[in-house]
Model the fold of this input.
Amino acid sequence: MREILGLMELEGFPPRYNIAPTQPILVAVAAPPLDPGSNRPDRMAVLVRWGLIPSWVKDPREFTLLINARSETAIDKASFRAAMRHRRVLVPASGFYEWHRPPKESGEKLQAYWIRPKRGGIVCFGGLMETYMSKDGSELDTGCILTVGANRTISEIHDRMPVVIEPQDFARWLDCRHGEPRDIVDLMRPADEDYFEAIPVSDLVNKVANVGAELQTPVIPPPKKQKPATDRSDDGQMNLF
DNA sequence: CCAGACGTTGTT
DNA sequence: GTCTGG
DNA sequence: CCAGACGTTGTT
DNA sequence: GTCTGG
Done:
């Protein structure tokens, strides 16, 4: 991931297997303009609270937790408009969890899935951040992840999925100095059908107190046909969500 | 115009 | 701060 | 799901 | 008839 993002700050960042809203997440942002000849990286890593707080919020305690933003509407929403223009970020992860909620009548149980790139490695989600100034003068960096309608593969599980930004689009996504929202709308689209694989996992993941690698151990879900996951092991560097 | 909301998803 | 609903 | 709206203007 | 708001 360090190689992918060009960040220096990632050494020694431990793997995390169950990141819940309000917890810190690592994001990549564009660094301030470089001096000519500088070899400083043009991106930097920031830890933000997962749950965006717009700058105009009076009392964060009474404000809804904004962990996702719909990419179709974020440009026009008061809560996301400024961040969409000025504070786009990349959120690196080794995948995400999603829950399949069967119709109540079906009798099927809620099934959790660990969803990761088929090729393994790191995926970068499109996200937004804000720096919130509280009344006591302290700053709180917060962020959220953009979503888009699920592709056919993921829609078996859920109707939405995170926006995936490909490496060749990182620079354009992050360049908020020149790139306006209309210049990046094309990047907010469902991932290719074969980009992700969904691995059924146990309901251990449902409890945020469970945080170990065993959360990603494949299970065979009871009734429906579901291809068991491979046992290809993860690189263990950065297991977000 | 003015007052009030400002969001998503449904357990990540 | 900006948008929406009345 | 059901009830209610279904339109525009917004300084005349 | 269809959409929206609760």
About this structure: The first helix of chain A runs from residue 2 to 5. The mean pLDDT of chain A is 84.
